[in-house]
Structure formats: structure tokens, C-alpha cells
Amino acid sequence: MRRKLRNFLPDHELILANRWLAPFQNTLLHPRLWHLNRHSVAGAAAAGLFCGLIPGPFQMLGAAICAVVFRVNLPLAMLTTFYTNPFTIVPLYIVAYTVGQWALPGESRHFVAPPEPGADGLIAWMHALSDWMIGLGAPLALGLVLLASGLALAGYVLVRVIWRAYLIRAWHRRRQRHRAT
After folding, report:
1. Domain count, the chain
2. Cα–Cα nearest to 137, from 89, 104, 115, 92
3. At what angle do helices 59-70 and 38-51 cross, to 10 degrees?
4. pTM for the complete prediction?
5. Three-state SS across 95-114?
6. How do residues 1-44 score in pLDDT, each as one tens digit?
7. Tens of pLDDT along 55-103?
8. Residue 32: HSE in the Cβ half-sphere, 13 Å Cα cutoff
9. Is 117 exposed, middle or buried (0-12, 13-18, 19+ CB in 10 A)?
């Protein structure tokens, strides 16, 4: 399993070569941030799934901070945030808003579509997007936290179950080969 994952992850030697990351080398070169085991991979998946719902372009930064704090695989945590993209973010926010309305039964606002990126530029669109999120209020905020927590828990458990199933299958294969010889 580790060999397959290593093909997709960058080498930590890239940090040594990057002059912008040089001040953080002591923190970023911690061995647990680059190690691939079931605990590190499951924690990285949970961190990435949780931070993937952070509004705006701060998802990868949040995942990196979580990876450093919880000492889980850094590249995998950052890579996992890519489940949110321009195609999936609106449906995820609608689900989060619905979850928030369910958790706060007194709130009865109707969902309003998010603003479209216009010709005014990225900054104006980000401002309009933040106004849209503030307008949705408490149901969206609570729904985002609950949905992110649920996704993180589900991702953690799913990775642990898949890793365990892979190990059991490998043990059975090894036992069969050993009996055949």
C-alpha cells in the first residue's frame, strides 16, 4: 500500500530546495509528516476532508496546519482538499446549509444561489461570495462545521477499514504462498 501511495506523493527533499520554505524546515521535515502508515494516512485524509470545506483559497493552508499540529502525512492532507472544486463546492454548501437548518430547527431561511464570478475581478467576486455566506448565517456556519466533521470522521474510518482489509488480504496471500512452498 505504501509503495502505491509513494508514487503520487512528492519527496520531502523538495522542501530543502525551496528557499521560501527554508525558515520552516525544522517543522516541515519532521519524519511523521512524511511517513506513510495507517495512522498517518487516515489522519491526513481526515484533516484534508475537514479543511476542504474552509471557504476561500485557504483550504490547503488549513490542511497543512492540521497536518503539522496532528503530525499526519502533510502532502496527503493537502492533496485530499481537492475534493472541493468549482463543480462540487456549491452542492457541498447546499448540503451544509441543509444540515445546518436541520440542526437549528428555529431557522427558516430560504437558500439563495451564490454569486457568479463576473467581469469585476476575483477580489470583487470574493467579496460578493463572503457577503453571500454571511447572509446565509448560522445554518451555513453550523452546517459547514457539522458536515466537515462528518466527512473527516467518515474519511478516517474508511481509510482505516480499507487499510485493514488490504493487510488481511496480504496476510492471506502470504499464508497461501507459504503453504504452497
Report:
1. 1
2. 104
3. 150
4. 0.74
5. HHHHHHHHHCCCCCCCCCCC
6. 566 666 666 666 666 676 766 666 666 667 788 888 899 999 99
7. 778 999 999 999 999 999 998 999 999 999 888 988 998 899 889 988 8
8. 14
9. middle
